[in-house]
């Protein structure tokens, strides 16, 4: 991921949730746009004020105050969900960290990235945020959701993917061969069996 395509990660704090290899470096990290919580916050404020007004006007009994946590909880959950989500790209991998009550970490080698897609709804196009979906070979997709400047992030991911493949051509070539290592070892053993059979046949004919 080039510095031109993405913000410089040198000033970012280390990722406590991701164990780095000795030769691995952080290139970029970010999280969902915090402003996407604002609509939930507005609903929480309006709902709380409405409940207080209804109680003050005696349209609701005093026990109606229990409605306030009910309208605040979704906004609090969305805030925690956004602030506890991190997306990262290193010299070797792309990774995500998420979870409110627990922690879920997923990391995928760059050579396993097959494609990237960018999506933005009308509001996202207007204010400059969107979602970048990373298609992963042999696994479920990764989503960098509600991130600022998704176009630059997508371009940076594509650059990192190509750089990751070219940096280790032998590993990339192996990744492009269909089938697992175990399957190819089984094929190799079968070929060796045929060779031993042919050698025994030749020795008997001689």
Automatic annotation (TrEMBL):
The chain crosses the membrane at residues 37-56, 62-80. The keyword Lipid metabolism does not apply. The keyword Transmembrane applies. This is Membrane-flanked domain DUF304. PANTHER family: BLL0215 PROTEIN. It comes from the Archaea. Keywords: Membrane, Transmembrane, Transmembrane helix. Residues 83-154 form the YdbS-like PH domain.
């Amino acid at each position: 991921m080039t510095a031109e395509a993405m913000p410089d990660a040198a000033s970012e704090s280390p990722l406590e949730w991701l164990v780095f290899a000795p030769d691995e470096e952080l290139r970029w990290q970010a999280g969902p746009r915090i402003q996407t919580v604002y609509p939930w916050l507005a609903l929480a404020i309006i709902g709380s004020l409405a409940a207080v007004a209804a109680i003050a006007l005696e349209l609701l009994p005093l026990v109606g105050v229990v409605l306030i946590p009910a309208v605040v909880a979704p906004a609090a959950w969305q805030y925690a969900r956004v602030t506890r989500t991190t997306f990262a790209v290193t010299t070797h991998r792309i990774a995500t960290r998420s979870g409110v009550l627990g922690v879920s970490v997923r990391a995928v080698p760059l050579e396993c990235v097959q494609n990237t897609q960018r999506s933005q709804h009308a509001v996202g196009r207007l204010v400059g945020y969107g979602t970048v979906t990373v298609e992963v070979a042999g696994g479920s997709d990764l989503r960098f959701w509600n991130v600022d400047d998704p176009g630059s992030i997508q371009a940076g991911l594509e650059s990192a993917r190509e750089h990751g493949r070219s940096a280790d051509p032998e590993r990339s070539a192996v990744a492009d061969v269909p089938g697992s290592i175990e399957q190819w070892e089984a094929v190799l053993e079968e070929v060796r069996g045929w060779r031993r059979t042919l050698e025994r046949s030749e020795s008997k004919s001689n």
